[in-house]
Amino acid sequence: MPTLRDVIAARPRVYRYLRPTPLYQYAGLSELIGARVWVKHENHLPVGAFKVRGGLNLVAQLSEQERRAGLFTASTGNHGQSIAYAARAHGVRATIAVPEGANPGKVAAMRGLGAEVMFHGADFDHAREWVVGLASAKGGRFVGPTEEQLIHGVGTYALEIIEDLPEVDAIIVPVGAGSGACATAIVAKAINPGIQVIGVQSAQAPAIQMSWAAGKAVTADMRTVAEGLATRVPFENTQRIMRKYLDDFLLVEDAAIEDAILLLLEHTHNLAEGAGAAALAAAIRLRQRLAGKNVVLVLSGGNLSADQLRRLLARTGAVAAAS
Amino acid sequence: MPTLRDVIAARPRVYRYLRPTPLYQYAGLSELIGARVWVKHENHLPVGAFKVRGGLNLVAQLSEQERRAGLFTASTGNHGQSIAYAARAHGVRATIAVPEGANPGKVAAMRGLGAEVMFHGADFDHAREWVVGLASAKGGRFVGPTEEQLIHGVGTYALEIIEDLPEVDAIIVPVGAGSGACATAIVAKAINPGIQVIGVQSAQAPAIQMSWAAGKAVTADMRTVAEGLATRVPFENTQRIMRKYLDDFLLVEDAAIEDAILLLLEHTHNLAEGAGAAALAAAIRLRQRLAGKNVVLVLSGGNLSADQLRRLLARTGAVAAAS
User: Fold this and answer.
1) For a tag on chain A, would you pick the N or C end, based on fewer CB atoms within 10 A?
2) What is the reported pTM?
């Protein structure tokens, strides 16, 4: 199981390529929640998401043979961009499999970061299975979404939170595969077990939360619009860590996540993707429990497309009125 | 006239409260311009704009008497928020005058930062004159928008650019009162006179550009939607610096600035206010001259309201198609 020591060891590998992200308090959000509310701006990172920290930590530790053979992964989202970014930073080739018909904007983003993007299969699972085989045939490293070295790198943001705000009472973190929540919980509990670490997933993709609550693997429908929260089956290693360390784990409706995207836009002038806004949606639900506390919302990523934003804004009138 | 030495001296005062902002290269923008294009993310700062650097440098140097009497300024925008932020960081009171009917969202933002906001007069000039008198009566310091200590602080972003990208060929910077352009030019020319520093203002508020081009003070209409570029009369000190150091100074139409806001949203997932997007609008105009070069666009601020963004997005179809 990853430890604080692993996270501390990851720091120089991560900070070779990026700077700590800001933790800002917002008066408008604090008033809304009735607490002192800070936002951890992981959307300010390269590729706009926290995952790049994990990619940088992993790629820095490749063997010479692995460097030569390159990295292989399957992703249509932030994981793929993060691996592409980290691979390029280290001069390693990255091959990323996506299903036929994958979002052209995201494919272009990964290609813009120098990755080779290959289309294969009708859905994500087919693309992944295929690229696992390809990696094996070429002697390269396949990188799954919850590898320990990724969690170690991601944990650097949790350390930054506690260094910037030692008096933090609660950290709310969105859960997709669980690397962010695991990393945050491991760091927070090692430093101060009194810090509440609360996970949040979409009620429209509840497999990870239901597995956590049931204490065993549960699969569930996946219909969320928040790509970063869209998981159908639990990962064994992150489940084990979350069961040990998470204080709570909520589900919020996609509609509440979309409201939170607009509230973040209004109060912070930052663009959040659905996963990035989920922590605010959870905080709104937990108002009473959080009252008067020092609360950190992890804005895990900002990769919302202009089209998604246009639709959201068109749907709503003045956001201020809704809050 | 401010010098590189002043900017270097400002750094510890600025970095006591904030971290350097990222300079990211974007493949999509690079392709669009036909150059290697980086964005300097001043929108990632507290209060979402570069000006906070100047405020922090100025407030750190107040005399005991000035600290006790407090700061006074007039602003409906980023200048006011920056002074409010810096004053609170240093435990100094800030009084900010705004005209009757000032934007409630911006007033709330300044109050959220702890400033006392006072409404006075029918327009900005009346509010300013009144608060200058109030400052004088109370023995406090009135802070205008182009004071040298502000320029010294703002220059820290230009130093960051050159440290992160020593091979930069051109920096494009939006001009409102001129503090950002002056600070950038002073730093760049002192380190490498070969770096082109190019200012940009809105054609719908061209007074500063026209004064620069004419070599004498010119006033002009001010109808731009970009509040950060909205100046009607030139400031003597920034004109002197810009005449000495700026390589070029363009006007771009508000419509081109609005397109640039959408392009930044699409390619970087960052929200830019009009002033913050003006550098991209200028780069699009200068494509031929910038071809193949290392170009930095200063995204000076991100304070666009959700309503402004909603209107912009509603007006347009798919942004990608327009690019």
Assistant:
1) N
2) 0.95
